[in-house]
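Archive transcription. Copying these from loose printouts into the bound notebook so they stop getting lost. Printout 1 of 2:
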Amino acid sequence: MSGPAWEWRLEVRTAAETHALAAALGAVLEPGDLLVLTGELGAGKTTFTQGLGEGLGVRSGIISPTFVLVRIHPNLPGGPRPGGPDLVHVDAYRLESAAEIDDIDLENTMDSAVTVVEWGRGRVEHLSDSRLEVELHRPRGGTGGMPPVTRPAGAPHAAADPSALPGVLDFDTDDDDEPRSVVIRGFGPRWAEAPSVPGVGPASLPGVETFTAPQTPERNS
C-alpha cells in the first residue's frame, strides 16, 4: 500500500478551532470523497464532523452514530452549498473487518455523498482509491479528566456500550476546550496535491502547517 502524497500536522487550541478547521476542509470536499477519522475517545471527532457538516452545508444536529452505525445528513437547498453532497457519518467501532463494512452498503451512497468513517482505519480503504485520513489527539493528562482510550484490538463488534469500557466516563466528550493535535494525510489520485484550505498555511518547520482560525466568537461546544 502506497504512502500518503502529503501530510499536514496542525494544532488547534479550542473546540471552536477544531470546528472551524473542519468547516474550512468541508467547503472543499466533493461527492465521492472518503474521510477516515481516528482518535482516542474525547479527541474531538464529533466536533470535527460537525464542522465538516457546516462546511458542506448539510442539516445540523450531527451526533455520533455509535449505536446506529450510520447517519445520513442531507444537503440543505437553502444552505451555503445548495445541490452539494450529503454527509454520510459512519461509526465502525463495533465492526471488525472490511466485510462487515460491506454489509452496511456504503457503496449505494459513496458516489453522491461525502463519507466520514470513525474508527475506519483498516476497514474502509477498499471503498475508494482515494481518501483523507484525519487523526485527532488530545494531550495526555489534560483537563477533561478522562484518560485516552482506544478501541481494543479484536474487541467484538457486538460488545456492550463502549461507555462501559474501563476508563471511559463519557463516550462523547468532544467538547473539552483544550488543545488538540490534528494530522491530515492525503492518499490516491484525488488527493495527489494538498487542497487549498482557508486558514491553513506553512509554518517555519518543514512538513509542519499552521491553522489560523477565523475571527469569530468562540463556540461553547
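Printout 2 of 2:
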Amino acid sequence: MTALDLSSQGLTSFPSLPPSVTRLDLYSNSLASVPASLWEHTGLEVLNLATNRLSSLPPGISALQSVHTLDLAHNRFESLPEELGELAGLTEYLYLSDNRLTAFPSAWCRLGRLRYLGCTDNLISSLPPDLSGFSSLRELRLYRNGLTALPESIGSLGALRELHLRGNRLTSLPESIGSLGELRQLDLRENLLVSLPPSIARLSKLDKLDLRWNKHFREPAWLRDFEEAGCMVLR
C-alpha cells in the first residue's frame, strides 16, 4: 500500500502521483481542477479532495472501483456526476457536505454497500423517490439542506442507525419511518414539524429523539410513554 499525504501544502495544481498510490490525501489545498488522469489510478482505495476550490469533476471517476472512502466535502460543487453511483467498491464513507449541490441524483442510490453518507450543508430540496438501493447505509446526514419532505422509501433503509435531518423545512414525516428497526438516533431539530407519525413508537432501539426548535410542534400523547421506555427525548 502507498499512502501519499499532501494535505495543507498550498497546492494550486495537481501533483504527479506514483502509480502504486492507494491512499491519496489532498485535503485543504487550493486546487481548482482535477485532471482526468487521476482516474487512471484504479488502485486508489481512499481519495480525499476535501476543502479545495473544486467546482467540477472530469468524466471517468467510475473507473475507481477500489475506492471505499471518497471525500469531496467543503468545495464549490453545484452538481456531481451520476457516475458516483457506479463506484461499486464504495463501502465506507462518501462525504459531500458543504458544497452548493441542488440535486440528489437517483443514480447515487445504487451504492448498495455504502455505510455512511454525509450530504449536509447543501441546497437539496428533495430526495429521489426510491432510496431502497442504500440497503447497507448505517448513517445518513442531511442536515441544513432545504428538504420539505421525505419519500416513503426512507422506511426501506433497514440497516440505518442514525438519521440526521436538522435544519430543513420538514412539516411532517412519512409513516414508513417506523420501519427503521435499527434506528438509534433521530435528529429533527430546526424543522417545521407539527406532529409525528405514531409509527415512531415502534422504534424499540431508538435511544435519542431530538425535537428541539420545531416551534409549532404538538406533542402526541404516546411520546411520554416512549420516553419512559428508555428513549431520551429532547424538546
